[in-house]
Design a protein that fits this description.
The complex is a heterodimer of chains A (519) and B (307). By secondary structure, chain A is mainly alpha-helical. Chain A has helices at residues 5-25, 34-42, 45-55, 62-73, 76-81, 83-98, 112-128, 132-137, 139-168, 188-204, 207-211, 214-223, 242-246, 269-273, 291-318, 347-353, 359-363, 399-403, 414-417, 433-436, 443-447, 477-481, and strands at residues 228-232, 252-253, 258-259, 279-283, 369-371, 384-386, 420-427, 453-457, 463-467, 490-500. Chain B is built from eleven helices and twelve strands. Classes of the chains: A mainly alpha (519), B alpha/beta (307).
Chain lengths: 519, 307
């Protein structure tokens, strides 16, 4: 195929994907149903692979589709589906607009040893220790963090400007949303990666994808046996080098008529650039003598993939350590364990599966999810943790559990979520307004959705809170509502393993419908 | 029939207060106050749907036109505090809110606004309470109260504990304010009705909670922007586990409604409806003492209607 429509299709398709990704991260009022979000996320390689590990079924395994696509036609994922890749293309384009020379890429030698070592290390670390490197390097998660920590504030500023203008005209379609920053340290990782990937893509095209990205390297490996590839017609080629200069992967060795298929991301730019129509996209013509080694490679690749799919299952089935609560930290209210989001099942389970893409943090309508620093220890840096000083988990909501792409948060039915105890409430009477000020308060009990915090008679006409841990679900509304400073009089201590709370019992009110006015 | 002496007395009084009001630059207040000349201090209705009871009750005041003039901006403030469905009666009945809005427009209101500073997530509260849809359907503008930016600092002259407070800007810019609480049990003040509903027009409720909640509730009533009308939804009344409720078991069908321009009196009537001792609701006596209304129901002219 030599049609210029190939490239047009790629641009159109990837633009739509990128816009969809912007939409889900900028969905300030949760207007997009989670089933649509899930369709988009199902085709992110690492998240869907992790979901597969956890679920053990191929039903949700979009990564299989990506693998098949890669067998068929190389790294289409990188150009069509990966939001980080598409974002880089956008950056490169801007770079090209600013300075023409930025876009003269030219053929470069691959960083073979570096990238395969990094891939191997990533796989080993992931299998043996956990998600650390995946968290760091999964392209979708990197993109998610860009959006949540750097993109959203910009989106909010725009939203607030629009709402301000519209309010002047008495229109209330948009509303002002207070921009609440995160802890300063949170921004370290996204900013560093933005600098790295941003500068690489501005000047060197897809170098990040071809040097560092483990997904790119893995798919590149599989591309070696792909059926459809970029082909060069030696007879038509005049060795003008335009294709090579325009190749953002720097993978066209035009002098030898070779395209490094492990680095080609199927952007089809070269197809359009070539004036002699020497470059096309089609079925590969394998030279006979290479056939044997090819088979070996295939076996190796297939074996690696089987290993990749199998080993974690074995490892997982063997370790069943009961997670212990983290040791006491310096948190004011003597919290012994952080509160992990609903659907996390247990802190250990959750830490194992979350790649800190931060989509849940962006999507939480209450802003209770915050990126963890060291609350979970090193294993959980940047993973979401419930912060009840910032907000609380709203009772009628399961948004985070619905959209988690890696299955770190298991989907919870609303009724199940309402009985999932994330932590237990603790009351410090000596901090309570009712005791210290001798005035009415009850902000905690008012906020409690299950009446796990209720009021009992105290001195005189006063009522004071009392807690019932059996029906507490650890939503943190009491802690958030408690007006005392600097220490709260009521707080939630996390459960290292989420448990089922008892359903609140509630007897029928003993009162009759009146027939006469009581006044 | 008004005799000459009464007429002179009244016109002198009216002139004086009008002059005072104009000289203080509160012209809008004058118009609102002078337009209302109700026969009753309070109308209580029993036995119908919230909408039907309101239709009947407002007639006794001479229709909404007695409170809302042509071209005025009206704020209708229901209780939308909780992310609960209408059948759980934690929020004002959406049908009632819609009907009130319709009456306002019939009386010639230019614009009607509805908002609340919710306790739960505001998007969910507005949606699941059914009020957003009902109010929009009736033609009102449903306005967010979710950001501090919407609130402006005002003084509360004479406040014992609450001397200044951040109030929603729409309340400040509106001509007529209509308070539409739902009567409920409350875990710490023991009842929420007219005065307590004002915690939804201010920003920093935490201050109230930590600075003598009852006194702050009474103090807020000193603020000059008072409701022209309080319409208390007593159809389904949450008599325990308030103000949020756990299930329908907390509710008692009372099929009643109280309409009054005196919110202290409205709260006293509410205590009777809820079945609690008026003295236990501390802010009522406090507000009475501050001269913000009459807690002595016997001295009021109350119209009682059974449907």
């Amino acid at each position: 195929m030599r049609s210029p429509n190939l490239r047009r299709f790629r641009i159109l398709f990837s633009a739509i994907v990128l816009i969809c990704f912007f939409a889900i991260f900028f969905d300030f009022k949760n207007l997009i149903p989670s089933k649509y979000i899930n369709i988009l996320l199902a085709f992110q390689f690492i998240p869907s692979l992790m979901k597969f590990y956890d679920l053990g079924t191929l039903v949700t395994a979009g990564f299989i589709v990506i693998l098949i696509l890669t067998f068929l036609s190389g790294r289409v994922y990188c150009s069509f589906l990966c939001p980080l890749g598409i974002g880089q293309d956008l950056f490169s384009r801007i770079g090209g607009k600013i300075k023409r020379k930025f876009r003269r890429y030219g053929f470069k030698r691959p960083f073979t040893i570096f990238r395969y070592t990094l891939l191997a290390v990533t796989i080993i670390v992931t299998l043996v220790w956990g998600v650390y490197l995946l968290t760091l390097l999964d392209p979708y998660s990197i993109f998610g963090r860009f959006m949540t920590y750097l993109g959203r504030p910009v989106g909010l500023v725009i939203n607030n400007f629009i709402s301000w203008v519209l309010h002047k005209f008495d229109v209330y379609t948009f509303e002002h949303i207070t921009i609440k920053g995160f802890q300063l340290l949170t921004y370290t990782l996204p900013v560093l990666f933005l600098l790295l990937i941003g500068s690489l893509s501005l000047t060197k095209g897809r170098l990040y994808c071809n040097m560092i990205c483990p997904v790119g390297t893995l798919l590149g490996l599989i591309s070696k046996i792909s059926i459809f590839r970029i082909r060069m017609d030696e007879h038509k080629c005049t060795k003008c080098g335009r294709c090579s200069v325009g190749c953002k992967s720097s993978c066209i060795d035009f002098l030898n008529h070779k395209v490094d298929v492990t680095r080609c991301v199927d952007c089809f730019n070269c197809v359009n650039i070539c004036q002699e129509k020497a470059i096309s996209f089609g079925i590969v013509r394998l030279k006979h003598k290479n056939h044997e080694t090819d088979m070996e490679k295939r076996k190796f690749v297939a074996g690696s993939i089987m290993l990749l799919l199998g080993i974690p299952q074995i490892i997982r089935s063997q370790e069943k350590v009961v997670p212990l609560p983290k040791k006491a930290s310096t948190v004011k209210e003597n919290k012994t364990c952080p509160v992990c989001p609903p659907g996390g099942v247990s802190i250990e389970d959750f830490n194992k599966d979350c790649t800190a893409c931060s989509l849940c943090i962006a999507a939480c309508p209450n802003g209770v999810l915050q990126p963890a620093m060291m609350q979970y220890g090193l294993a959980g840096v940047m993973q979401p943790v419930m912060d009840y000083h910032k907000s609380f988990c709203t009772y009628n909501c399961t948004r985070c559990t619905e959209i988690c792409p890696t299955y770190a948060l298991h989907p919870l039915a609303l009724e199940a979520k309402k009985l999932t105890q994330l932590g237990k409430v603790n009351f410090i009477k000596d901090n309570c307004i009712v005791k210290t000020e001798k005035t009415a308060c009850g902000a905690c009990s008012e906020a409690c959705p299950t009446k796990a915090v209720y009021m009992i008679p105290y001195e005189g006409n006063l009522l004071i809170p009392e807690v019932n841990n059996e029906i507490c679900i650890g939503c943190g509304h009491c802690e958030f509502a408690c007006p005392t400073t600097p220490y709260k009089a009521i707080y939630v201590d996390g459960n290292s393993i989420h448990v089922a709370a008892k359903a609140p019992e509630n007897e029928k009110a003993e009162s009759e419908t009146p027939v006469e006015f009581p006044f | 029939m008004m005799n000459r002496r009464d007429f002179l007395k009244k016109s002198a009084g009216a002139g004086l207060s009008a002059g005072a009001a104009v000289s203080l630059g509160r012209y809008d207040r004058l118009r609102v106050n002078s337009s209302a000349s109700p026969k009753y201090d309070m109308v209580a209705i029993m036995g119908g749907s919230p909408e039907a009871m309101f239709d009947l009750g407002i007639q006794e005041f001479g229709g909404m036109g007695a409170f809302v003039r042509k071209g005025q901006k009206v704020v209708v403030k229901p209780n939308i505090g909780w992310d609960r469905t209408p059948d759980l009666a934690a929020n004002t009945s959406p049908g009632l809110v819609a009907r009130i809005i319709e009456h306002c427009f019939k009386a010639g209101a230019k614009e009607v606004y509805v908002f609340d500073h919710t306790c739960d997530n505001w998007v969910n509260c507005y949606k699941n309470s059914g009020i957003e849809k009902a109010a929009r359907g009736a033609g009102a503008k449903v306005v967010p109260g979710s950001s501090e930016k919407y609130y402006q600092n005002v003084d509360i002259p004479g406040g014992v504990k609450l001397r200044s407070v951040k109030v929603h800007e729409l309340l400040l810019s509106s001509d007529v304010f209509i308070n539409v609480p739902i009567l409920k049990d409350h875990n710490s003040t023991r009842m929420t009705s007219c005065l307590k509903n004002m915690m939804g027009v201010v920003w920093d409720r935490g201050f109230w909670h930590s600075n003598n909640l009852n006194q702050c509730i009474a103090d807020y009533a000193l603020f000059e922007k008072k409701p022209a009308l309080n319409i208390i939804d007593c159809y389904n009344v949450m008599i325990k586990n308030g103000p949020q409720g756990v299930s329908r078991n907390d509710l008692v069908l009372k099929k009643s409604q109280i309409i009054t321009s005196d919110w202290v009196a409205g709260d006293v009537a509410s205590t009777r409806m809820l079945g609690v001792d008026t003295e236990k609701i501390e802010y009522i006596a406090m507000a009475h003492k501050l001269g913000l209304g009459n807690m002595n129901l016997d001295s009021l002219n109350i119209k009682r209607i059974k449907m």
